[in-house]
Amino acid sequence: MSNETLGFYNRNAAAYAANEGAGNPRLFSFLRHCPPGGKVLELGTGAGVDAAAMIQAAFDLDATDGSSALAAIASERLGRTVRTMLFDQLDAKEAYDGVYACASLTHVPRSDLPRVIQRVHRALRHCGVAWANFKAGACEGTDALGRHYSYLSEQRLLDLWSEAAPWASIETEAWLGGAYDGKETRWLAVTAIR
Ligand SMILES: C[S@@+](CC[C@H](N)C(=O)[O-])C[C@H]1O[C@@H](n2cnc3c(N)ncnc32)[C@H](O)[C@@H]1O
């Protein structure tokens, strides 16, 4: 996976944290699929805005990020340790009711995505839910800030997740929103139930 992307987040962690907005409003539709107080893994927690909301909502959160600088900032915010973990270090088996990845798996190179999706599937308990969003587009590439993105079409997103693992159900949605680079962004999200 791209060290340049993590290099960006490590070098710019304080600025990224200072620019984080109010959090993802779609977090709560993900949480509605999880049992009350359920165990949730967050991949790419950033500065911990959505993590704080999940803890506030009494979920048993395991927050992680590949950037040690952002994990430190999020640990400070949450008053608990945020683990520094790369997506391809996820080795958990049937451990979580939910896996939440807001604007994070979109950085995984397309050729690595199936293996990461398989890790997410394996980490979930029976009937557990995964939620992840991606920037829309036709190809993969590097943005003006030096971050790698797997830009996907909605159909490609659906195909990638469906082909990578045997989900019981899988849905996608799309919307226009903002992003850290200040650009209007078409986002695609997948909700997949094991
Ligand atoms: C756009 S930020 C999103 C942060 C937060 N979820 C949010 O919505 O604001 C992407 C996050 O993914 C993390 N990340 C990028 N590549 C990663 C990797 N290979 N393994 C783990 N985390 C990674 C970054 O450090 C960063 O915190």
From TrEMBL:
Pfam family, one: Methyltransf_25
Signal sequence extent: none
GO molecular function: methyltransferase activity
GO biological process, one term: methylation
Tree of life domain: Bacteria
Annotated InterPro entries: Methyltransf_25, SAM-dependent_MTases_sf
Domain Methyltransferase as annotated: residue spans: 40-128
Keywords: Methyltransferase, Transferase
Protein's name in the database: SAM-dependent methyltransferase
